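User: Hey, quick favor. My workstation is busy. Could you predict this chain's structure for me?
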Amino acid sequence: MALAFLRHLARWRRRHPTLPLLGDTRLRGEREAALLRWSVKVLGAEMAQRFYASGLAGPAAPVPAGPTHLGVTSRTCRQSDIEHDWLRHWSRLIGTPPAYHRKLWEDCFILQALWEAGMLAPGRRALGFAVGREALPAILAAHGVAVLATDLDAGDSRARDWIETGQHGNATDGLFRPGLLERAEFDRLVGFRAVDMARLPQDLQQGGFDLVWSACAMEHLGGLDRGLDFVVAAMRCLKPGGIAVHTTEFNLDGAGGTIGRGATVLYQRRHLEALGRRLARDGHRMLALDDGHGDGMLDRFVDLPPQDHEASPLGAIFPPHLRLSVRGYPVTSAGIVVVAGSGHP
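Assistant: No problem, here it is.
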């Protein structure tokens, strides 16, 4: 009983570091640990700034005239990708300079995989899951692709946090990008529907789409197995030869523990390899996973919480975010590419 009370008290103090009348409730060691975290972020931001100044990334990085073939496979995010022409092309269409941030990498990876598979072409049909306010539906439409964008129903209690943080979508208005195509063409090609990734409607699982995608969504379904079940179910939405591309949180410590349940779970290589075997039994083919850590300096920099970099007591800080700590686990983004087989089980 006493141990449970102390744990409850510790959690309460973490949620309420400052109280009226009492002020800062943190102990000296806790305050110094927080300052150490911000100091590490400052050093990371300085490293990234030097790369930006050299033109390897950021606004000064040269932009290629068109897409560059990479020979994409399932893989993890790394510094060299941010500095490569293939990512610079897609980041320009997204409207963001190539920054050392894994979320930008995820969108670019999805577009690169779809382009290399010949899916960015008029006449293709795409299905996007948990799209929020992504630029991807507009980019696909600008290439002539018909898109059905989906997200969790706004009335679902699970959507509350995404709505509060501006990451939820409930219509096509938040998906339109005027610099990519005319509104009339966008409206002709892009539709929206509320869909629960954990319970895909049967009418969508009839093999009517050329491509499906999700960006950092499968890890938010409550458990490791639930995310994998989603990937398997989404394959039934594809025509034979269609392409599925999904990005997710990836625990770089493959031999250690991980987070298997909760609001955010962390996949390891063994989980994705098991997914590949499961998909193969259904007649599909997941491209081999390249989970190399990368050899860049920023591949070894792990961003620590908090992630609200403007809340720093040292001024606004924007460190690289290719790696981060999630409850003490070293995490990056991974993308998987799956080719649909000729039939469904």
